[in-house]
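Suppose a colleague, Dr. K., hands you the sequence of a protein chain of 143 amino acids and asks what its three-dimensional shape might be. Before reaching for any lab equipment, you can write down a predicted structure in token form. Begin with the sequence itself:
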Amino acid sequence: MSAALKWLSMAMGFACVAIGFLHIALGIDAVPDMGSSGVTADSQSRFFGAIFVGYGLAWIWAARQSPIPATAVRWLAGIFLLGAVARFISMAVYGWPHWFQLVLTALEVVLPPIYFWLADAEEKRAGAARLDDRVPAASRPHS
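The predicted structure, expressed as tokens, is then:
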């Protein structure tokens, strides 16, 4: 479980950093169906690209900790899930977006529960390891 959480967190981090830099470099051209949305939309897209780079770096930071901090993973996954909520609000107000945005929404709904589950498992594993460190070897049950 720990290896899966580390791998998924690193993958999420690097993907977010890459996507963020893509948005910084391309602006609205990085988003399907944005067309000629104008200077304000381009500025906002590049700004949010920078924020996404920072979000990705937070995932990478969490993945490099030992043990991986479950609370940080839960917060980061919760923020990702909040992105899906924001997309659902947009769909309710404006209708269906470009099909690629629907794929992203699906990822934003499916991945957070996996991260929550893995974070819980990591927290339990780390807690058990700390307990084992406190109990002298002679008093541990034999298995």
